[in-house]
Amino acid sequence: MIFVDLSSDLLQADLTLFGARVDWRRQFITTDRNPYYDSFVRWQVNKLRALNRIKFGERYTIYSPKDGQPCMDHDRSEGEGVGPQEYTALKLEVVDWSPAAAEVVKSAIGSSTAFLIAATLRPETMYGQTNCFVGTKIKYGVFVANDKEVFVCTARAARNMAFQKDIFAARGEVKQIAEISGDLIIGTKVKAPFGVIPEVYVLPMDNVLPDKGTGVVTSVPSDSPDDYATLMDVRKKADYYKIKPEWAAFDPIPVLSTPAYGEMSAPTLCTQLKIQSQKDKVQLAEAKAASYKEGFYNGTMSIGDFKGESVQDAKPKVRAQMIERGLAFPYAEPEGFVQSRSGDECIVALLDQWYLDYGEASWKKDAVEYVPF
């Protein structure tokens, strides 16, 4: 069986000319052009709604700003199967700009408070921040969030933020007031939300990806092998990286404990896998997977309000605290590159929509009972 979009009669003629052997008598059209099938779909949806299986609310959705609508798999020229990835976006308030950065951005910012925005999947580890990383070759934008705040991140991240709730003042509008190269931001001092060390410095990182996250990486070297390897790298080569040694002087801070790697999973794994620098990408990927898996499934918090609790339980609680205190906000973007058929790079938007809640407990229980094991 094949399914063909027959929204145009020309498609049927083209397929016939192409040599397709299709029994056109057995076709059906999933629009109101076929009132019988349309009636069936309406009955099905109303039935599910009556059973309280269809719900309404805000959900993250892959979206094309150019087309002004969600971009589902069949609407994409690239990125089939890619879904939204949700992060916690940390607001790292700028305390002192580096002289080079101040020269570029201070006049544009005026009296507004500036924040470097770092996206993390591990908010529970933020107690252990020792520094912040940016990519020296990445171009960052300074974007107006509201009448009091400006955000520093990549333009790609800002475009996503513009279609999500309560991040920018006007939905869908990105107002950039300055652009700055990452190398100029090095040496800037920022506040570290929830950090044991309240203020840290911005350092260079070779592995920052411009098309993933916000382009700003907050560093927790106790539990992130990438962060640990890079911190040790820039410490050893301060002159090469053009940093002051005191900017990288803070040692890793214990945040969580695991049976396999103790309270310093990143340093332990870097030693075990003989990782020498941030350039050892294969070993670092292996170390990252091992550290994150062990920390999430077997880790116990060593610090903070939820000390002694499992990482799985503490993670959403720490995140909620940070958001409640205005130190962070929810942020989402596509897991990978998505392009619509119209050629638009898609983003993630927070939209009102009807949806089927397949994870609802009673419905899931009924389904499992029908599945033979």
CATH topology of the largest domain: Isoleucyl-tRNA Synthetase, domain 2
Report Rg: 25 Å
What is the CATH C-level name of the largest domain? Alpha Beta
What are the secondary-structure elements, in order, as H or E?
HHEEEEHEEEEHEHEEEHHEHHEHEEEH
What about the largest sheet?
A: 10 strands, mixed
Quick one: how many beta strands? Answer: 17
Helix content: 25-40%
CATH architecture of the largest domain: Alpha-Beta Complex
Structural class by helix and strand composition: alpha+beta
What number is the mean pLDDT? 93
Q: Strand percentage, roughly? A: 25-35%
Q: Helix count?
A: 11
**Could you say which overall geometry the principal axes of the C-alpha atoms support?**
globular
End-to-end distance: 29 Å
Number of spatially distinct domains: 2
Sequence stretches where pLDDT stays below 50 over 5 or more residues:
none
Looking at CATH, the homologous superfamily of the largest domain is Valyl/Leucyl/Isoleucyl-tRNA synthetase, editing domain
